[in-house]
User: Fold these one by one.
Assistant:
Number 1:
Amino acid sequence: MTNPIKLSLKTELVIIILILLNIGAAFWFYAHTPEQIPTHWNTAGEIDGYSSRAFGATFLPALTIGIYLLLILLPYLDPKRDRYQEFANIYFIFYDSLFCYRFYWSRV
């Protein structure tokens, strides 16, 4: 099965490097934060919710990886995958809005 959206290592390299940096930052923050970290504030600016150090350090990297994999796998899972070439520009605008550091010139 071929991917209707043409991706290459050249177009994905920056995203992969930034995800790896994100994971590295998660390890650093895990080692340098207390057991509980504030994760929610009320309208008065007072802390009213805490999370564990593991959740605080790993949630955003895990969310980033999940969204990235979803966008890569979506063309394979969609039953109307033959229409992706027709709307490739719209797909990449949405993709680029989530991963702002992608370059249009690298999609060759």
Note: The chain has a mean pLDDT of 80.
Number 2:
Amino acid sequence: MKMIVAIIKPFRLDAVREALAEVGVSGMTVTEVRGFGRQKGHTELYRGAEYVVDLLPKIKLEVALPSERVEQAVEVIARAAKTGQIGDGKIFVYDLDQTVRIRTGEKGPDAV
């Protein structure tokens, strides 16, 4: 089992969610986060004063999948999240040692 964590632009969430649903991914966790990478933020003008916004709003998606489905999901996320602009995000894949469905006690891929 693997855990996919993707950091994407907020306005790409619906496209990514729909693309994952089309390939049979039925569950995910979505969190609103803030961060920066190479973008290093940007400056904005508010009521005549310039200020630095160095933590930009992003969306963090977490998806647990059987190992054999990970490559397809990563490709789908990358394709749906891509705008071609700086700050499109990152995808991380982690090993998932154990999964347990609390309600039934199912373990492993059956718990997802």
Note: The beta strands are 2-8, 29-35, 42-46, 49-53, 56-65, 89-95.
Number 3:
Amino acid sequence: MPDNAAKSYGWSNDMPISLHEKLKQDLKTALLGRDSSAKDNIRMIMSEYPKLTVPLTLESGKKTTRLKKPEEITDDDILDIIRKLVKSEKTVLEFQKKESSHYLEMLELYLPKMASGQEIETWIKENIDLAGYNNPMQAMGHVMKHFGKLADGNLVKQILQKKGK
């Protein structure tokens, strides 16, 4: 991916535009710029939209679902899709014995920045009294509740295990 292309693609929470709209803009940019790799990667994300459904109960009492309309698709819906694609791609790369791929790099441009180990350690020091727990691992729930999907659970686990020693 050319450096100037990498700067035009991607999304963050502080952008004044929804992730759904940004993906549509980036697809248009890729089409106009004849960037087939970016175009294919964005289309892969968009191809997952039909998995976004809304549960319905019909008059007969039967439960079913319908596709979400474009205006019903939230940033969290799309971020969940991208996270699943990243996890899948990392599994594929692990089997291929590769570190990264253009596809993985492109997907990560649309994910929010993950909390670093230093940020997690600092938050734990400032907000959690580990002496109140029998085992530091019992604080895992509180840490993950604070950071949510912005923290890697394995990293939090390593930090808490290190504090327990």
Note: The chain has two domains: 3-108, 117-164.
